[in-house]
Amino acid sequence: MENYNEIVKKQREFFLEGKTKSLAYRMQALRLLREIIKLNEKSLMDALKEDLNKNPFESYMSEIGMLLGEISFTLKHLKKWSEPRRVKATMAQFGSKSVIYPEPYGVTLIISPWNYPFQLAFAPLIGAIAAGNCSIIKPSELTPITAKLIGDLISQSFPEEYITVIQGGVETSQALLKEKFDYIFFTGSVAVGKVIMEAAAKTLTPVTLELGGKSPCIVHKDANLPLAAKRIAWGKFINAGQTCVAPDYIYAHSEVKEEFLQYLIQSIKALYSEDVLLKGEFTRIVSKKHFERLTGFLSEDKIHYGGRYESSSLMIEPTILDNVTWDDFVMKDEIFGPILPVLSYEDTSNMINTITERPKPLALYIFSENKAFQNRVLDGISFGGGCINDTIFHLSSPYLPFGGVGESGVGAYHGKGSFDTFTHEKSILKQTTRFDLPLRYPNRKNALETLKRLLK
């Protein structure tokens, strides 16, 4: 039976030495991480190609480039983020100073998924390093080439008592969760997220859960339809739809639905060739299990465009489903593949109510030129984050914390959000000894009346 007590113990001992809390140590580690990525760009692209058939452009944009930008942003701001900051004190604390000290949690566990196997392993690691923690990374076994490369790069560059990678499957994750960590960061499915939270609850370990859900894409009747179709096609079919914030389904206004579908097909054809499967230029589905689940959604009477697939290569071409209802199997859970159902609405209130009756989505996208409509949707629906007149791009901004709400996740990261996630804010009140306010003591005359007046 797997046991990771020794490595956790070794990391905790190293953390207690205090080296990782040094700003210079953290910045040096981030610079080294950046250098590792730059020097191994070709190897990373090759690994992603072998695991998922990702092309170099997509690999750099969605995995490598995002991380380099995140590291640069963190290095630029880390000194300021790390400094103790003074906050106001109330009149009741006259004579004192109130200060918040950012401090790392300690030993952190990062469990990363297969859909962006490099980016989603290193993005939380950037926050963990920046905050001063030690980290154990458990990459996905479903992308073994990338996972091995991650392990090699980390082991060649960092001591295992600081950062280490542990390979393995479900049993490995279960064994790791039996250890006492100071923070757990998980990216993956809702089902596994519940398992992570249950395990963390036994030791009262704080968690960040980056999950998913059915993210709606609303196309209102006043939308710029050609541009909406282009941006939706890009956001949905990048990485073959295996993106946690991909538009899961379209909710198009009935007045423009048919016209929008024409533009959507045109956009898909512009992005991908007709023989995308024969050329093998599309990202593959990660496993046979996921492939079979997705092809089960392809009912002939629902296919509006596409629908072809190749079992030997685990590829499914970009597909649009029409005449879909909420009773269809494809609308029960997150799709996580290149299949896009289209529903229609007429009444805005009914559309909003239909979405809010279901689990809160990780993302939501609104295509409309009407600010009143935009605000009505934003105010009426709870979701993690999203875009107006675009898709996916919100997660690339270091100024926007990224995370879910409800069943779509707990906590957020990116930019300062990553630093904050892996940081405990220690609140300290520094009291003067030059004088002592008597009103705090109950033996003072009229103590209660004075206290009430002061605290009003």
TrEMBL record:
GO terms for molecular function: aldehyde dehydrogenase (NAD+) activity. The active site is at E210, C244. GO terms for biological process: aldehyde metabolic process. One of its GO terms (cellular component) is cytoplasm. It holds the Pfam family Aldedh. The keyword NAD applies. InterPro entries: Ald_DH/histidinol_DH (IPR016161), Ald_DH_C (IPR016163), Ald_DH_CS_CYS (IPR016160), Ald_DH_CS_GLU (IPR029510), Ald_DH_N (IPR016162), Aldehyde_DH_dom (IPR015590), Aldehyde_DH_NAD(P) (IPR012394). Residues 2-428 form the Aldehyde dehydrogenase domain. Keywords: NAD, Oxidoreductase. Belongs to the aldehyde dehydrogenase family. This is Aldehyde dehydrogenase. It comes from Niallia endozanthoxylica.
